[in-house]
Specification:
By secondary structure, the protein is of the alpha+beta class. The chain has one domain. It has 11 helices and 5 strands. The strands form 2 sheets. A 3-stranded mixed beta sheet has the order 3-5-4, with helices on one face. Helix 2 packs across helix 6 and helix 5 packs antiparallel against helix 6. The protein starts with a helix and ends with a helix. Bound molecules: zinc ion. The site of zinc ion has 4 residues, from helix 4.
């Protein structure tokens, strides 16, 4: 087992994931995305305060968020120790980091020794990172990370490691779609679909590699692949759905965020699987929007 696989296992997902070999339909989606990536999209810069406020407004319009376990390192002279307490996710520190693309985001977590309990694992959050190039994409990246903080420490809220990114990516899409800024969903798709295309190519070219480092990259890539396809699938249902369908989706997500339901139960409710999410027609709509 590679180091990354061990890490996945220690986070309590049901089964150890395996690397997906892309099929012909999936490779066609990658080819469909390629021309869409010819022109880099332009995005406007934003101030940190505006970035955070935009994401707060979006999330609080739809959801009640839960407090999360936060761990902070305290240094006094030569001593350093950690303190933990529960905080609102918006109170997690946000650090801006360089050398990252405009859509970068990461929630820094620490996994403590011990097994944790059934209701709460031994995972704590430390801070959220965003790119120091703050643009219109940053509120989406921040929303993405806030959603991670609602689920990653709750064992069973996500059973399958391949669904770890699903809800975060879906809500980025909704936030971009509902923005009065028409350019935003296009800018979002540019980054998200570019990543999807790169993952498919990576899996296509290196599926048979026995190099453990490459296998780790492909394991993580597989999770992004499954999650991205399913997120665009649910987004398609949302966009084409009437007000009742849209409400049902958002209520379902609240149930997941409140830990009454798993991400897998939400996906099953809408009959979303990896296989039926490999749908060229869904992606055609997104690449066409740019023309
Ligand atoms: Zn993520």
């Amino acid at each position: 087992m590679t180091s990354y696989a061990t890490q996945i296992k220690s986070r309590g997902y049901d089964e150890l994931p395996i690397i997906t070999r892309p099929n012909k339909e999936l490779i066609r989606i990658a080819s469909l995305i390629e021309p869409f990536l010819q022109d880099e999209v332009k995005v406007k810069t934003m101030r940190k305060k505006e970035v955070l406020a935009e994401s707060h407004d979006f999330l609080l319009k739809y959801f009640r968020l839960r407090d999360i376990p936060y761990e902070r390192k305290i240094n006094i002279l030569t001593f350093s120790f950690e303190v933990s307490r529960y905080v609102h996710p918006f109170d997690l520190p946000v650090k801006l980091v360089g050398d990252s693309d405009a859509f970068y985001g990461c929630s820094r977590e620490v996994l403590l020794f011990g097994t944790g309990s059934e209701v709460c694992s031994n995972l704590r959050y430390r801070w959220i990172e965003l790119s120091k190039d703050l643009t219109e994409l940053a509120p989406l990246a921040y929303t993405h990370e806030i959603i991670h903080t609602q689920l990653n420490h709750i064992p069973g809220s996500i059973e399958d490691y391949n669904n770890v990114e699903f809800l975060s990516i879906f809500l980025e899409l909704i936030e971009a779609y509902e923005s009065p800024n028409y350019n935003l969903i296009h800018a979002h798709d540019f980054y998200r679909l570019r990543e999807l295309k790169e993952i498919i190519r990576e899996l296509e070219n290196n599926y048979d590699s026995s190099n453990p480092k490459i296998q780790d990259v492909l394991l993580e890539g597989t999770s992004y692949l499954h999650s991205t396809l399913k997120a665009y699938h649910l987004f398609d249902i949302y966009v084409n759905g009437d007000i009742d369908v849209r409400r049902t989706i958002m209520v379902g997500i609240q149930r997941v965020l409140s830990h009454f339901m798993s991400v897998e139960e939400l996906l099953a409710y809408f009959n979303i699987t990896y296989e039926n999410s490999i749908n060229e027609d869904i992606f055609k709509k997104h690449v066409r929007r740019s023309l």
